[in-house]
Amino acid sequence: xxxxxxxxxxxxxxxxxxxxxxxxxxxxxxxxxxxxxxxxxxxxxxxxxxxxxxxxxxxxxxxxxxxxxxxxxxxxxxxxxxxxxxxxxxxxxxxxxxxxxxxx
Length: 104
Description:
This protein is mainly alpha-helical. It contains four helices and no strands.
């Protein structure tokens, strides 16, 4: 009813808020759970826009390919989200003395 732009803005905003809350893991794990729920609520807004964009912007003969390309981009972003932290933090070292009180 509100359109594709509104869905992308709502989904992106909820995903951003959810990711930001997950950064508060050192405060309490509850923030991670709350952030995960908020991000999970925003995800369908983004995923459901894929078919809507391809049906509104592309000819019927191209829709399947475009929707498949959007799904590919989604999967590549998930793969990058798994691989990049390992690359970026490869030199990170942790020793038990770095843990705060009660964290082992």
